[in-house]
Fold this sequence. Notes:
By secondary structure, the chain is of the alpha+beta class. The chain folds into 2 domains: about 1-35; about 35-195, Immunoglobulin-like. It has helices at about 1-35, 65-70, 125-135, 170-175; strands at about 35-45, 50-60, 75-85, 95-105, 110-115, 120-125, 135-145, 155-160, 185, 190-195. The strands form 2 sheets. A 6-stranded antiparallel sheet has the order 6-5-4-3-8-10, covered by helices on one side. Strands 7-2-1-9 form a 4-stranded mixed sheet. The longest helix is centred in the N-terminal third of the chain and has 32 residues, at about 1-35.
Amino acid sequence: xxxxxxxxxxxxxxxxxxxxxxxxxxxxxxxxxxxxxxxxxxxxxxxxxxxxxxxxxxxxxxxxxxxxxxxxxxxxxxxxxxxxxxxxxxxxxxxxxxxxxxxxxxxxxxxxxxxxxxxxxxxxxxxxxxxxxxxxxxxxxxxxxxxxxxxxxxxxxxxxxxxxxxxxxxxxxxxxxxxxxxxxxxxxxxxxxxxxxx
Length: 198
């Protein structure tokens, strides 16, 4: 009788392990289909008016969004930067912030991708070229000199994300329900200390 119970427990354990491996495989496949925007590095450097932001991101839209943009669905991206003064006795004080809104679209007639920022735009032959440009920001002025105090520690954060609210309404619902329509975006945070004299 004891041998029979032990044999049943071993079979149940084998089935549980197999089920766990199957679920892990499905989750990995699902995560591979979803897109991501990972910050690689970011920093502030002095410019003539204060501090300028330089960033680099790794962008992977995933197959579903790549197909959508080549079929004419515009994608909107938002670059957000914030700088706050750390305070131990209260919430951090907002010092500076900057937001850029990009629009990525494809024009079937010219077979070109277009990246627009406000009234400015640039055309590209391939999606990889657009994402390469979108993934870099160089010397963008974000903080005025008068807002900073030398020697003080500030909390900086930067994030590039897909703005799901700008998708067409039916796709907004898909983005909520289907992981393939989502692009996971992480925020990069670091401490910034202004050196030198004001």
